[in-house]
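Deliverable D4.2, example record:
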Amino acid sequence: MDTIASLFSFITTPVSWVIVQFHKVYGALFGPDTGWAWGLSIVSLVIVIRICLIPLFVKQIKATRAMQTLQPEMKKIQERYKNDRQRQSEEMMKLYKDTGTNPLSSCLPILAQSPFFFALYHVLNSIANGDTIGVINQSLLESAQKAHILGAPLAAKFTDSAADVTALDASLTSVRIVTAVMIVMMSASQFFTQRQLMTKNVDTTVKTPFMQQQKMLMYIFPVMFAVFGINFPVGVLVYWLTTNVWTMGQQMYVIHNNPTPGSTAQAAYLERLYKRVTQHGKTRGRGEKAIVKAIVAKGRDRNEHERKFINGLSKVGLAAQADGTVVKGEAQTATLTEDGTPTTAAAGRRQQPKRQTKSQRQTTAPKAAGETTTSLSKTDEPEDDKPADAAKSKPGSAGGRSKAQSGQRKGGPQRPKSPSKK
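Output generated by the structure prediction step:
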């Protein structure tokens, strides 16, 4: 174990140094040998590590969103090769490679903090064995061995024997109760975090390997924590419980303010955003503008929740703009000039013609063909022109032959008219 610890001294030494610096601060407030001083030092170590991992967490969210955009393509591949699992997997891997996405991106934060977890485990294990490690000298080692969290020593484990626990000045019952409660809380927080992701922040309309992976992690990680947690010192349990609570809170913030498109969390967010926008008549903050801008840019590719949001704004006379702002719709902002033309952009919009009836289409058909028709009512027709018009309408006259009716022969006998045309 000492050989392994020496090989990873490049990470155990910084971890022990961070713990000691926080211990100096909390030791001045609560006493150097108290569980509060050492316990809060471990909690502060978690906070520092998670703050450093925020860029990686943002990268994880972007990769997850990229996976969401591939859902339609994944569905097509599944339908095309539904009877060939091997070909389906090959096409999925090809799609991941072409788009530069990674289905294992959700594991990145856990993998990134695993070296710190390993280093903290060796630091606490060395404290339990009475060995100095990193910057923890003999005096700090004795202080850490005296520290108790709810009656359990910082370096005690659930599997320790009664003699080992007695050497740390504690009882076996208190150690096992504290460690068991912390293991249950650690597993429950991990399960709740993953379940929250599956039920609220994932588009469940398409079944993909990504969905199966997330579902598998929801059950595997809590079991792993429960099984391996009995071998973790109390200090490591404090570390892992704190990082689970941080992850859960961080994920709740992201789901509440920047949900995945197509998820139930997005439907709830857009409903809240709709109420705020209709109440104030505008978007507030860069976050709201960024989401509205993304929805407008999608155009016809909007999902059901986004279309409902845009249509809801239109019904109350509001319109989302390409820059993420919301302005009053054309129905409310339109004004008329002196000649009666609208001043808004809607004036230049092409108006759709009204649908005509069959009789109207038959009446306007000659006009569409280029013919000129003039119709005068009996009261408007001049009396002097009637004989001339009557002469022109005779079959033997030249005018009558030049203006033969459509469908009649110019020479020879004419076809009898159909009874329906009388």
